[in-house]
Amino acid sequence: MSFKPDIPETPLYKSKPIVSKHYNKVSEVSVGNTFNNMEALDLAVRMKALEEGYQFLSNKTDPNRCVLKGKDIQQDILSQYKINISYQQSWRGKEYGLQQIRGSSYESFEMLPYYCHNLERKNQGTVTRIKIDEKGVFEMLFIAFGASIRTFMHCLRSLLIIDIAHLKAQYKGTNLVAVGMDGNNQILSVAFGICKGEIGPCWLWWMSVLKECIGDSPNLLFISDRHAAIALAVRNEFPLAFHDDVQLDAYHKLCQADPQRWSKAHCLLVRYNYMTSNSVKSVNACTVLNRKLPVIVLAETYRAMVQDWFFKRRELVDISL
């Protein structure tokens, strides 16, 4: 395996200078102008507003999201090159450009074994698994970073909250996530994965790998929604743990459900007032854009997010000491 993708360190935050070196007084804000970066554009627009005495409203921007639409591309090509192109041509051009920047979904799945190999080499205790079918086609992915495993085993409350999110990239699929909670009610992503859908075999395989990482214990509590596949996987792979499914339907359905699955009074373990899987939804909100991108981009999002969390907390400890 000659391909070894770099795993960058988390960069230190640097505050923006009060006076920007990117601003050029002779530059003008007009259609077709280009700027070296977002800061230069932002400052140029603000200075123009000050000079001409008007206010402006900026729409929300995100450097990781392309908001250019097909019609915008058509207009830009016509304005700059005096060429009329169809909407389909502009759409295909946009897709090709994004593929050149982010890589294709197909190539991303091909790179997964190399990526996982290097994750384990660079992060002690990290566990990665890729499941393929008899034809060698990708089926499922599991990744748990070593730092997250150690932190969960030694520092966090003995509960895991699990849930899913749907992928929007070319091959679709489901994003499986397990998070833990610390004593300050802060969230830590313990493990994540990708599979074809929220079905029994997928949860069973994924939970079996999770068990390799954290083991089974009568003190371990699982919190999830009432999906039958999750309940089956927990019963099979974590027979010693307590699984408190949450029923959010109307009262008459609650009365029909097993009280152990939704009542704090019937919960045999301490659940720290966690009644829903909303903590996973908070993590899912951080990946909502990248779930539309190739799979390695999504995996890198989790890696960067976890690394950034640990870096900031270590920095806070050093300051307090």
From TrEMBL:
Name the domain of life this protein comes from.
Eukaryota
**Residue span, MULE transposase domain:** 160-243
* One protein family per Pfam: MULE
Record's protein name: Transposase, MuDR, MULE transposase domain protein
What organism is listed for this UniProt entry? Answer: Tanacetum coccineum
